[in-house]
Every structure is written in structure tokens, then in C-alpha cells.
Amino acid sequence: MNENIFKRNELLAKKVIQGLQSRNMSGYYAANKEEALKKALELIPAKASVTMGGAMSAHEIGLVKAVKEGDYHFIDRDEYEDKRAAMLASYDADIFLSSANAMTDDGIIVNIDGNANRVSAIAQGPGKVLFIVGMNKICPDIDSAIKRARNIAAPINAQRFGLATPCTKTGKCMDCKSLDTICCQFLITRFSRHKNRIHVILVNDDLGF
């Protein structure tokens, strides 16, 4: 990565972390994927029950693989015939792994969901929520964060899942009401009432969508 971009990300991450702290959340900066993986595993106690929503960033740093192969109880919804049972089981997990569709530079986290299992678990349920967030997700304000979530993250995810939504053809949000839409619930996490519940690892890399 270009040295100037690295320095810019490092400085921006400090501002984001300060914003998170002001919102009763914890933030950390990792200079690369390896550091991010190391920090994430430090935050997950041995024997903990761990689950996740859609979190490509957690896959990209190797966290999902490490948890599956480590001394943890991983609740894998792909192994459940009853997907609803898997989603309900996640609410009682010790750790919920996630990413963000976007974040503001003062620590507000924005997520969009279709089935609401991810956003509902972030809001309430698991004892700890651990976000893995690439610096490409950081936006200057809440409006630009929502626009990023709707016009970058959502269309790419809709394409990835092979959904029949207008955005898969146009590449941008069309504010549709398609039955396939994944823009059903919007969660803006601006403060955590419970200290030490929400942790965000900012990674000096482009991760996820």
C-alpha cells in the first residue's frame, strides 16, 4: 500500500476510535490483516460460542477459518437444516462476528439487512459483537454512510446472491420493493448502552463491499 495512504488511514482510524469511545464502544487499529486476526482472537475467549452474520471481512482476514479450527463452539448456520433455528441460536452466543456496510469517521455504524438476523443480533442478543471493518468503509458523515451502504454494499451483495433486484442490473440502489430486496432493515448504531459489548477492529486494507 502507498505510504501516504497508509499514513492517512492511520490518522483517520485514530479519529474513528475516538468517536467509538465517545459512544461507549471500543475501537482498535490493525496495520494489516495479520494484525487484525491476532487482535480479533485476543478478544475471543477460549471455549466461547461464536456465530456470525454475513461478514466477508471476517473471512478475508482468516478469522472464520481460525474460529472453526480453534478451541471455540462455532454456530454454523450452514450446518442447520432449520435456518430459523440457527438464527435464533445466535442470539444466545457469546460472540457475534460482523462487518459494517459503512461507518462514519466519528464512530457511527451503518448496516442494511434482508432477513434482519444480522442487524437484530448486533442490536440485541449476543454478549459481545466484534466488527471487522476495512478502512474503505469509512465515510465523512451519516448521509454518505447510508449512501455507501445502499449504492455499493447492497448492489454487490445482491449480485453475489444472484437476486432479481433492479440494482443487480443498474449497479445502484433503485429504492425498490422487490421481494428479493435485501434493503429491508436499516440499523444505525450510534451508541452502546452496554460498555465492552461492541468492539470494532479497523483494518488498513480494503475489505468486503
SSE topology sketch:
Layout: H1 3-22, E1 26-30, H2 33-42, E2 49-52, H3 56-60, H4 63-69, E3 73-74, H5 83-90, E4 95-98, E5 102-104, E6 109-113, H6 117-123, E7 128-134, E8 138-139, H7 142-160, H8 166-170, E9 185-189, E10 198-203
Parallel strand pairs: 1-10, 2-3, 2-4, 4-7, 5-8, 7-10
Antiparallel strand pairs: 5-6, 6-9
What does this structure look like?
This protein has 209 residues and is of the alpha/beta class. The chain has a single domain, classed as Rossmann fold (3-Layer(aba) Sandwich), CATH 3.40.50.10420. The protein is 39% helix and 21% strand. The chain contains 8 helices and 10 strands. It has a 6-stranded parallel beta sheet with strand order 1-10-7-4-2-3. Strands 8-5-6-9 form a 4-stranded mixed beta sheet, sandwiched between helices. A hairpin with a 4-residue loop joins β5 and β6. It is globular, with a radius of gyration of 16 Å.
Task: Provide a concise account of the structure shown.
The protein has 209 residues and is α/β, with parallel strands linked by helices. The protein is 39% helix and 21% strand.
Which fold name is given in CATH as the topology? Rossmann fold
- What's the N-to-C terminus distance? 19 Å
What fraction, in percent, of the residue positions are helical? 25-40%
Rg, rounded, reads 16 Å
Structural class based on helices, strands and sheet pairing: alpha/beta
- Provide mean pLDDT, rounded: 95
CATH level-four homologous superfamily name: NagB/RpiA/CoA transferase-like
- Which regions have little confidence, pLDDT < 50, spanning 5+ residues? none
Question: Looking at the chains present, what oligomeric state does this protein adopt?
Answer: single chain
Taking strands numbered 1, 2, ... along the chain, how are they ordered across the largest sheet?
1-10-7-4-2-3
| Annotation field: number of helices | 8
CATH class: Alpha Beta
Instruction: Count all strands and give the number.
Output: 10
Fraction in beta strands: 15-25%
